[in-house]
Structure formats: structure tokens, C-alpha cells
Design brief:
The complex is a heterodimer of chains A (372) and B (791). Chain A folds into two domains: 89 residues; 248 residues, Bira Bifunctional Protein, Domain 2 (BirA Bifunctional Protein, domain 2). Helix content of chain A is 40%, strand content 20%. Chain A has twelve helices and ten strands. In chain A, α1 runs parallel beside α4 and α2 runs antiparallel to α4. Chain B has six domains: 69 residues, Phenylalanyl-tRNA Synthetase, Chain B, domain 1, CATH 3.30.56; 111 residues, OB fold (Dihydrolipoamide Acetyltransferase, E2P), CATH 2.40.50.140; 208 residues, Phenylalanyl-tRNA Synthetase, Chain B, domain 3; 65 residues, Phenylalanyl-tRNA Synthetase, Chain B, domain 1, CATH 3.30.56.10; 193 residues, Bira Bifunctional Protein, Domain 2 (BirA Bifunctional Protein, domain 2, 2-Layer Sandwich), CATH 3.30.930; 83 residues, Ferrodoxin-fold anticodon-binding domain (Alpha-Beta Plaits, 2-Layer Sandwich). In chain B, the strands form 13 sheets. In chain B, strands 32, 35, 36, 37, 38, 39, 40 and 41 form an eight-stranded mixed β-sheet that branches. In chain B, strands 6-5-4-7-12 form a five-stranded antiparallel β-sheet. In chain B, a hairpin with a 3-residue loop joins β25 and β26. In chain B, α8 runs antiparallel to α9. The chains are: A alpha+beta (372), B alpha+beta (791). Chains A and B meet through α5, β1, α7, β4 and α9 of A and α8, α13, α14, β32 and α16 of B. Chain B: Its EC number is 6.1.1.20. Chain B: Pfam families: B3_4 (PF03483), B5 (PF03484), FDX-ACB (PF03147), tRNA_bind (PF01588), tRNA_synthFbeta (PF17759). Chain B: Its cofactor is Mg(2+). Chain B: InterPro entries: aa-tRNA-synth_II/BPL/LPL, B3/B4_tRNA-bd, DNA-bd_dom_put_sf, Fdx_antiC-bd, Fdx_antiC-bd_sf, NA-bd_OB-fold, Phe-tRNA-ligase_IIc_bsu, Phe-tRNA-ligase_IIc_bsu_bact.
Chain lengths: 372, 791
Amino acid sequence: MADQLDALRDQLLAAIDTASALDTLEACRVEALGKQGRVTQLLKTLGAMSPEQRQVEGPAIHGLREAVTAAIATRKTALEQLALDARLSAERVDLTLPVDATPTGTIHPVSQVMDELAEIFADLGFAVATGPELETDWHNFTALNIPETHPARAMHDTFYLAGQEGTGGIDDRETPRVLRTHTSPVQIRTMLANKPPIRIIAPGRTYRSDSDATHTPMFHQVEGLVIDKGITLGHLKWTLETFLKAFFERDDIVLRLRPSYFPFTEPSAEIDVGYTIEKGKRVIGGHPGGQGGGGWLEVLGSGMVHPKVIAACGLDPAEWQGFAFGCGIDRLAMLKYGMDDLRAFFDGDIRWLKHYGFSALDVPTLSGGVGA
Amino acid sequence: MKFTLGWLRDHLDFDADVNTVAEALTRVGLEVEGIHNPGDELAPFRVARVLSAERHPQADKLQVLSVDAGDGPLQVVCGAPNARAGLVGVFGAPGAYVPGLDVTLKVASIRGVESNGMMCSARELEIGEGHDGIIELPADAPIGTSFSDYAGLNDPVIDISVTPNRPDCMGVRGIARDLAAAGLGTLKPWRPGTLPSGAAPLAEPQDEAPAVRTDDPEGCPAFFAQAVAGVSNGESPDWLRSRLQAVGQKPISALVDITNYVMIDLGRPLHVYDRGTLSGALVARRAMAGEEVIALNGRTYQLTPAMTVIADDKAVHDIGGIMGGEHSSVTDGTTDVLVECAFFDPDAIARTGQALALTSDARQRFERGVDPAFLDDGLTHATALVVALCGGTASAVTRAGEAPLGLRHYRYDPSLAKTLGGLAIAPDRQRQILESLGFSVGEDWQVTPPTWRRDVDGPADLVEEVIRIEGIDRVAPVPLPRVPGVATPTATPSQKIERRARRAAAARGLDEAVTWSFLSEAEAAPFGGGAWTLANPISEALKVMRPSLLPGLLAAAERNLRRGAGSVRLFELGRRYLAEGERPTLGLVLAGDKRVRGWQAGKAAAFDAFDAKAEALALLAAAGAPVDNLLVMGDAGEAWHPGQSGTLRLGPKTILAAFGALHPNVLRAFDLDGAVVAVELYLDAIPARRGTGFMRAAYTPPALQPVRRDFAFTVPAGLAADALVRAIRGADKAAIVAARVFDLFEKDDVRSMAVEVTLQPGDKSFTDADLKAISDKVVAAAAKTGASLRG
């Protein structure tokens, strides 16, 4: 009996191990364990056995059943793995084929620099103020101590609005007559609308009737204004130095103040920043007197707000004083990021925008840096 | 304003070199724009003697010279008629650059004869007009020495930018005064008649004073004049000619050169009339309507009664203080002259100059304000120069009117230097600075600016004077006081909306452009036309303020496509300029391929109106607009495709955006082919988010999962998908959380839509009866729109 069982086991296990497909394996299972299966038949014989005989044969026959069942399961797993391998191998694709690129957009350098300015000055307590681009004569000139016949008006190459000639004139505070020639009228609007202390920057579009390689009839400026008690030229110098160091992310920014003239500041100073030559390119920072050569670049106009301007805004110049500065944003962008043609800023050439533009994720932050 | 270092020396004793002078000028606010030494350019040219001159064997008009430039004879071929043995001239050796010819000399063979350099004419060296022959120097000129040294051309020219507030620095003497105050040298004394070479004797009045008067005391408060009879006008002496040439003034004749010289030297414009051309008294008066004058620049100017002119009995001879007239200008034949030294009102000069669009050296000075106390000395000086250089006898002086001195007195507190200027300067030092600039400072610190400083207006100006001379670079930086702790946010809600919209657009693949705020009228027309037109546009293409951001973006898109771009996604965030004001707006344009052809997707695809809608909704959502509640309505405007454009509104009146395909006529006007879609977002219409702090509303995700049911409807032809979906969503507001069209079928007149409805159970799962009831409500609600469940 035992020999018979062993022979049957060998025969069944051999068939299972050599089953090459799941249907063959199923046939093996039916032959062994199906209702008429050979192991099933053996199990049925147990009922007719004497207890003594059953005690001997029972474990042997059950052992055979378990061995066959386990072998089938093992073989099934193996066959399934083979089938999966075959399928996966048939599913191979050429991963060197190109994928459809998601379009990537850009932020214009002017916007990026405006965001950088807002971030730097926010840390110094400055809010961002805005004002109209179609401005009144009064806000753009008169209140800024630029009277009608002042040579500075001719200097500004002002765009005038047609059909407004007959309106209120230089003292009209309501009717727009010019495209603002600078962001300085935002100083006036801010002082009229807010009580000091005031700390603002005002970035925006400005216009002058000028068009050549380095001038465009539309450009961008940022104005800065601080009105408080006890503000001096020293505060102005520190603020601009701090700003330029933060903006260019260099500690070796060297400023040169030059006395100058703006009708709305007194004393007035133009601010030059030192540049040095690195790898043949002008780089802001370092002392121009150093070994590699260098020089000064004019970047800002500034000064202490003229007492007449403070008075024009209804404040007492004996109580309040402060400083103001103005700076070209396009120029700041060019100095920091190295563009050399101002006109390209306003062309909308996507090749230029993709090259000089910034990722949407390049949000200037104090912790991450304001340059990208 | 240009002057030479030598000219400065007439007024200032100093030892400094040109670079030190330039640094000092910039430091006091007279920004140096350039330094040019004409001697540098002529450094290779030397004084040389022609030893012999023979005829060229091959050419009649050429000679073969033997030239000694200090180191032996050299053979030089020369074509100048005046070249001859014994002549002393200027020689350029091979290697020398000849500025007037723009060539660098080299050894050359001229008609078979070797030539080792060149004898030069004045024009070739750009030191004069003479080209009749080579330069002839005195026979005793030292052979072999540098010509520029010999001719005094080693005199650096300094060009400074004079700010509009500094009339005094429109003359060399004013510049010298600033430098002296800044410690660079000592100001030399000056009196009328002073010349570089010494002093000209003052003219003794011998003739009767000329008849002049002013009938326009506002425009010309003072008109001083002196006549000189029997002058002989001609070329000025060399020193005067080279002075003027060095600073870019063309020498004309002695009389004209004298006026230019005094103007540049002392900032005092003058005018000299040929008295022989005048008839009767010379009068300063307002022009009469219709009068005109041919000015010295040869152009005719129409005058108005707002303008001050100088006229005689017959005609206008001078646009007062701006430019003289041709008729009475001096010529080589002039014998009797009248020298005018007048004071014109700066504001009137500025207005007249602006109205005539006429600039001149005289206007620049008069509108800044010349020294009203310098009429007598100026006139005496000019007349002395005329007599000295041109001969003749002077008349007595006529003084018509009086120049307003405009003296102002300010109480000055020296501590202002510190409290305003940030620089502590001892009061004595401040007094010294002010006095050296010509201010008078009383014991009680009452300060009176000098008559030549019309610009100084108040104590802040005095601080500026003191600081700029002491050195503005010495102001030490002082930190702005700051609030302790981390900086507080400063951005306003509208600024936040702009920032989010901008960065969202870039994140969605759009490139940010910045385009002109002004357009042509034609570009603006389909977008409502420009409400604001420039009176003085730079060109017709940049004439009206844009009523929309789209024209600029369309033009940019066209440029990009023309340059070969396959796909253009541009946006801009800026203002539209409407009659009622400036409105912050985001515009975007999608042109070219939406998707390029590909191995997966097949053919390229163009943009359509739904791409525009997707951008509009995404950007509005990013900007914080409640996009779930928006209505799609028509009427985007005439620039848009009438059937494929619309507006997104929050309620019927608040338009947040226009979107869709653009009208083919508009695209044609911009030279654009194919479909171009666009969006304009009206950022100021987006409602600000309510300030509820950082805390969110309480929320727990539902425990039970949602149930989805699909419904297929046959709908009437005119029914908008949105209307059907809204009706369904309203069928059971508690259970239905979403409804979405997921299939659309249109054939002939039959239109059917399949809608997926999402139901969210609350505490208990839906029973079959619940679901049946909800379905019935959905079908009933849809039926009200005319939709029927498809069988």
C-alpha cells in the first residue's frame, strides 16, 4: 500500500511540476483532487477501513493530498509569474519618445523687479502706493515746485493730452492733462491722503516724449518717500545703501552722492553706484578704484523733500520733513540681470521673455533671496 | 557747458591737474560729462621746416619736399600750392592719425616717388577751416617740437552738465567761484576790460548815447546800450578764435565772437546790432500780432503779443533775449554798432522760447536768470573789447529801465546742516562757505543770496550750498528707525489680486509681456476707441491711450508668429485708460498652435473659445473670484466673434471678464491668420475677500461616499448647457453636490446631453426609495427647461 502511494505521489507531482500552462495544471488538479480524482478516490476508501487500518492509512493518504495541493499552488504561482513576465515584456515601449511639454510661462523682468522692491522695502516698513498715469498739471508739476515756466518742464519732454488745453490749467487738481513724467506725483497724492509718518514706494509706468537707443517713450520708475520727524540726509543715504545692498545681494555696494538739482527736493543728490569689471562685464559692487577697473553708474535721483512740496500737501514743513528718491526700474533690471537693450522690454518677443523672464515660482522672499 | 582748463585759469589760481579739477566739479554738483584734450589727438604732429621743394617728375601739381622735423631730412610728396623751401609748418610722420582726413599715414609711393609723411593744412588737423595750403608757422618756430604744445592746443576741454538752477555756472567765472569755495584755488579779481592777455583800456565815451528805451517793463525791465562808431570788423585774434573753437563755438567775426566770448566767460548774453541798418530808436516792446522776424538761424518766426522783441521804427530786429535778427546783424562791412546789454524776464523768455520751439545759448541763460546787477559792468566790458579788437569810439551809455535785483533775506539756523543735511558743520565754517559763494551773512545769521543766485529760495537751499561745498559724501548713513519684530505685511487687497493673477498666468504657461500704453487710432477703434488722445504723440502709431490690453498683445503675437513662433501665449497686466478712469486689467492672447502635432496626439490643434474660457476661470479663481457663481453671458463686444465669445459675470451687471475667439475682421487688421482667442480680466471688478481672519469654517469630511447617477436628456435646440445644469443642481440642494455635462450629441435638430449628478449622503446611506425620489426630482427640474429624459 505504502509503495502504491509513493508511486502515485511521484507520478502526480511529476505531472504538476511539468505542467507548462494553467489549463494543463488544472487537468492535473482534476485528475488528482477532482470528484473522481485519484486522491479523492483514495480518501473515500478510508471510511471502509478498520480503525486500526485507518490509523495507518489515514495520515498517509491525507499527507498525499496536502502534498499535491501544495505542489499545485506552487506551480500555479510560478506559471502566473511566467505569464506576467511574458505580458510585461510584450508591453515594452520606447521611452526615448518625446513627451508633450506643458507650456511654461514667465514673469516679465519689470514685474519681477517691482516684486523684489516691494519685498525689500516692506522689511523697512514701506508700503506700495499707486497713482494715476494720466495726471494733472498740478500733481505732476506745480505741487512739486515746478512752475509753468520752469526749465525743468521743458526738460521733461511731457506728453500732453489733446482737448484738455482749455481746462483748469496748472492749478486744476482734477482734470488730467499730461501723462505723468515721473512717479513723483504719487508723493503728492500720498501726502494729501495720509497722515505722517509716511513710508512708501510707488512703482509704475512713466512717460516722456523721447525715443532712441536708450530711451523709450514709456518706461518704469519707482518713487520712494519718507515723511516723519527728524529725518535727515543721513537716513536717505542709509536707506538707499541698504536697499541697493539687498537688491544686488552684495555687501560691497559703494555709493557716491553728487549734489544735483530737482525742484522738489532740497538738498538734492544724485546717487552713483560703483561698478567693477568681472570677466569683461560691468558688475555692480566693489570699489571702482580697485585693480580690475570700474567706474560709477548713475542709478538714483534723491533729496530731502522741499519744504514747499510739504506745504503744498497741507503739512507743516517745520514739523515734518523727509526724503524722496526716484529710480528707473528698467535700468535696475538691466544692471542686475544684464539685458542691454531697453526697447526689447516692450516688444513682447517670447524668445526674449523666455530668456530674461522669471518662473512663476521665483517669488522674491527675504529668506529665499530677492534675486532669481 | 564747455570750457578749457586754460580759460578757467583766467579766473582761478590753481595748481591741480585736470582730473583733480574734474573730481572737484562733480563733487560740488557740476557733473563732468567729458574731458577732451585736443592736444592728445595731435601729439604725433611736429613743427618742421621745408628744406627744399622740387617739382614732382610725374605730376605738375605735386612737389617733392625735403622736410626736417628735428631729426634729419625726409622726402615728402606735397600738393599744397604754398609749399616752398624755407616754410615752417606742421609735419605728420607715418603712423600719425590725421583727424580731418580720417586716415593713418604710412610710407607711400605717390606717382612713383616715395613719401614719408605729410605736411598738414589746418582743416586736416581740425584746428580751423584753412585748406588753401599747408599751415605756415612763424620762421622762428622751434623745429622738431610738438605742434600742439607750440600752438597751445594742450588745453583740456571740460564739458559739464549745468542743472537748471545754476545760471551763474553758465559762465566760466561762476564755475571758478564754486571751485574756489570748494578749496580748489583762489578766485582772481575781475573788473571790466579784463582779458586773458591783460586788461583792455576802458572806452572813453566820446559820442552821444544811443536812443533806446523799453516799452515793456515786464518782459524787458532793463535795456542798457552803448554805441561804437568807426569799427572795423574782421577775423578775431587767434587767442579768441581758438578759445571759441575749443568749446565748440564757430568763430564768425570779431564783433560776434566778442558777444559769444563774454557770454561763455561771464554768463552774460549780449547782442550787437549794425547801427547802419537801424532806423530811429531801438525799443524793447511786445510784438504786434502778425509781426515776424527772420532770425540769425535763417528761419522766419511768427510773433505774438506775448513775446518781447527789440524793434526800431521799421521792423523787429531781435527776439528779445533769445535770438537776433538777420537784417541788423553785423557783417564785415559794419562800421557803426550798438551793443545791447538787457535784462529779460526769465519766465517770459521761457514761455517765448517754448512757444517758438527755439533754443539758443542766450535763452538758456536768460531763462535760468542772468545776474541783474551785472548790466553796467557787462556792457562796459563788452564795449571795451569791441574798441580793443575792432577800434572805433564809444558813445555814452543809455540805461533804460532798471533790472530787478530781487534781493531776498533768509533767517538761517546753522544747526539745520545737521538736522536736515545730516552733517554737523561748525557755524564759522558755514559762514565761510556761504561768503565764498557770494552770500552775505549777517551777525544774526540773516543770509542774503548774491544777485546771480536767483535759484536760492529758503533755508533748505542754504543747507544744500553748505553741504555740497563741505562734501555731501561726508554725510554718514543713519539707519531709519524700525518697528521691533518681523516686518508687517504692506500689500493691499488689490495688489494681492494682481500678484496672484500674474503668477497664476505664468504658472499656466503664459509669458508676461509689457506693451505700450498708447496705440494707433485704428488699433483702438474695434475695442471702443481711445478716450484719451495725445496732443504731441511721438508717432501716429503711439497716439491714443489704449482702451484694451488686447491690441498691444495681438500686435506682439503677430510679431512672434512672423518670427517663426509656433505657439504664442502672452499676457499683460496693466491699465486700460477709459474716459471714466484707469482700470487695472489682465489681458491674454492665445495664437498659433494650442498643441503641436505629435506621435501620440496626432495633428496639431488650434486654440478655441473654450481654451479662453478655461484661462479666464482659472485666473479668476487664482485671483480669488467666486467662479462657481459666475454667469456666462453674451455681448463681449464688436472685436469678438459674435458666436464664440462671452462675458463672465457676477450677477447681471458685474462683468469680471470677456473671453472667446476674436472677430476675423480684427484679426485681419492685425495680419493674423487662423483662430486667435483672448481674455480680458477686469481685476478691479473682482470682489475683495471678506476679512474673516485666518480661521476657516469648521469642516469634517463626510463619512459616507458619494453616489453618482447619469442622466441622458434630449434638449431643445436653444437650451444652454449651463441652464440645464443649474436646473438639475437646484432639484435637491441637500443631496446634489455637483452636476456636470459629460457627453454631448448633436445631429440634425436633435441635441442630447448626458449629465453626471453627484449625490452626497448625510448620516445615512440613500435607500432605493431615496434615490428614486431624487432622480424624479432631477427629471422634473430638467423638464422645466424643456429637457426630456431620453428613452
